[in-house]
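Late entry, 5-amino-5-deoxy-1-O-phosphono-D-mannitol complex.
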Amino acid sequence: EKGGHRHFMAKEIAEQPSVIGDTIRHYAGTREIVLPEPGLDFSQYDRVLLVACGTANYACFVAKYWFERIAGLPAEVDIASEFRYREPPIPARTLAIFVSQSGETADTLAALRYCEGRVDRIASVVNVAESSIARGSDIVLPIFAGAEIGVASTKAFTCQLTVLHMLALKAGSDRGVLSGTEMETRLGLLSSLPGLVNHAVGESAEVERIAREVAEVEDALFLGRGAMYPLALEGALKLKEISYIHAEGYASGELKHGPIALIDQTVPVVVLAPSDELFDKSVSNMQEVMARGGRILLITDPAGARKAGDGCWRVLTLPEIAADLAPILYAIPVQLLAYHAAVAKGTDVDQPRNLAKSVTVE
Ligand code: M6R
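Prediction complete; structure with ligand written out below:
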């Protein structure tokens, strides 16, 4: 049942090239994104509201960057447990999107109920198409990840991201922000994603070597800018969830507003930084860490490794990828790092202490 893997989590990490490919095939044509009935027309909304818990919430957070940048559509992200009790006012022409692997998370479902009659449309991005959250939605957008057994969400996260990315493309096109040619180019780039993810999955042994060293530490920091910031949060969550190493994710620019006080040689700092337009800013942050004796694990692309690899404790190099797709690719080493650190520590990878796969109580 684990397909020759030691843990479900390893199997689910390895499945990502194939399930991401399935997800893309379900929504992407050569020229356009096709949604299941009854469809969505983003020209009808002035704002997207994304609500979820845990890893699904970080997928929403990445999507905020995409909706804003690709479609010029204001997007707000909320944690379901905060949203539901805050009971916020909701402006007209709002599309609410609920993201949940299980489709049964109590807080996310309660947030959805709060939105009934208050938003123009309720969409859900779920892995379980017969779930309560799916049943409560006007439109259901399945992620096609297949059953996810490991408590730590891996393939569901990247498939959620893939669906949300395609929604942002559709939004760009519906709102006249993305031309037909740009759409075709972006769909072409998307079709190369499974191959790139496959490459990243294939680097598992190298991540394992680094993870054995990370397994020795008590605390770790994850830093990222732009859409890599939510990935930093996800990296920290994944590591603490299964290896019980205390980890925090920060926006790189926040480093000097507090967390830099933690830096010394005992705290590895994982920097997620493809060589995009924000790269030089990330390099400055890395220099601040190194100047204080901090150890950097840089996760970047070949150009980034050439520019900034010197002085880093370790460098993991991923293939070059279009900036907007980087969050999906960079999820892989982050998952592998947590997985191998947990295996090195001998924790229960698939069933970490105190956690449930589906959180159906508040
Ligand atoms: O089923 P859901 O996607 O609604 O679950 C949300 C969170 O409970 C979930 O993502 C959790 O954070 C994972 N265990 C993280 O790996």
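The chain has a mean pLDDT of 96. Will revisit in the morning.
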